[in-house]
Write a sequence for this structure.
């Protein structure tokens, strides 16, 4: 990618990040499993969970989807790191379904 596009991707990725805190983490899909398995750590917990964008950042960038939509916690799923690596930049939800989840989010 040219330098300007790489800069745009980096900026988009930053804007689409999840903003998780103690008040909203319990609402995230997969939270109950997190309490059992814990967070991923390559050395200490290789079976732990990571945050996954169900509608991927790559898809959002390519399709010019508002990064706030992609970074909404309704788009977050906690899943084993191995599954997230296999998923790569694929999406496990459609934009339409994500927008429905966002409307229902409280």
């Amino acid at each position: 990618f040219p330098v300007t596009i790489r800069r745009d991707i980096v900026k988009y990725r930053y804007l689409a990040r999840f903003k998780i805190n103690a008040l909203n983490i319990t609402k995230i899909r997969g939270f109950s499993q997190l309490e059992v398995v814990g967070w991923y750590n390559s050395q200490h917990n290789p079976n732990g969970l990571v945050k996954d964008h169900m509608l991927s950042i790559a898809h959002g960038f390519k399709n010019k989807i508002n990064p706030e939509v992609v970074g909404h916690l309704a788009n977050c799923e906690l899943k084993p790191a191995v599954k997230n690596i296999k998923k790569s930049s694929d999406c496990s939800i459609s934009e339409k379904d994500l927008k429905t989840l966002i409307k229902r989010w409280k």
User: Anything to note?
Assistant: The CA atoms of residues 6 and 12 lie 10 Å apart.
